[in-house]
Amino acid sequence: MEQVLTLIGFEPTRRRGDQWYGCCPFHDSTSNRRTSFSVNVAMRVYYCHKCRSQGDQIQLWAAYTQLGNRPAAIDLCREIGREVPWIYRW
């Protein structure tokens, strides 16, 4: 989750343990006083109280890049330098 947050340029304005708060990367929430976006880095989930966007790190990357979940997962693996974990069926 932390790698995805770095890739999208998210900078938390407040941290409380594993819970991070800041401006939502999906809507024009540019004021530092607005902390509608929250991320639990331990549970690897996010939620925006304004635009209602929510999910895990794959869904966060998919929403940010405007890709589907599968293409976003492949793109994210390539972006962070990991091998794509292909599942082969017999």
Protein architecture, described:
By secondary structure, the protein is of the alpha+beta class. The chain has one domain: DNA Primase, Chain A (Alpha-Beta Complex), CATH 3.90.580. The protein is built from three helices and five strands; from the N terminus they run H-E-E-E-E-E-H-H. The chain has a five-stranded antiparallel sheet, with helices on one face. Helix 2 packs across helix 3. The longest helix has 11 residues.
Write the layout of secondary structure elements.
Layout lengths: L1 H6 L6 E3 L2 E4 L14 E4 L4 E4 L5 E2 L1 H9 L3 H11 L11
Antiparallel strand pairs: 1-2, 2-3, 3-4, 4-5
Helix pairs in contact: 2-3
CATH architecture: Alpha-Beta Complex
Low-pLDDT residue intervals, each spanning 5 or more residues: none
The dominant shape is globular
Strand order of the largest sheet: 1-2-3-4-5
What percent of the residues sit in helical stretches (DSSP H or I)?
A: 25-40%
Q: Taking all residues together, what is the mean pLDDT?
A: 88
Strand coverage percent: 15-25%
H/E series: HEEEEEHH
N- to C-terminal distance: 32 Å
Total strands: the figure is 5
CATH class: Alpha Beta
Per DSSP, the total helix count is 3
Q: What is the count of structural domains?
A: 1
The CATH topology name reads DNA Primase, Chain A
Subunit arrangement of the protein: single chain
User: Nearest-angstrom radius of gyration?
Assistant: 14 Å
Largest sheet: 5 strands, antiparallel
Helix-and-strand structural type: alpha+beta
CATH superfamily: Zinc finger, CHC2-typedomain
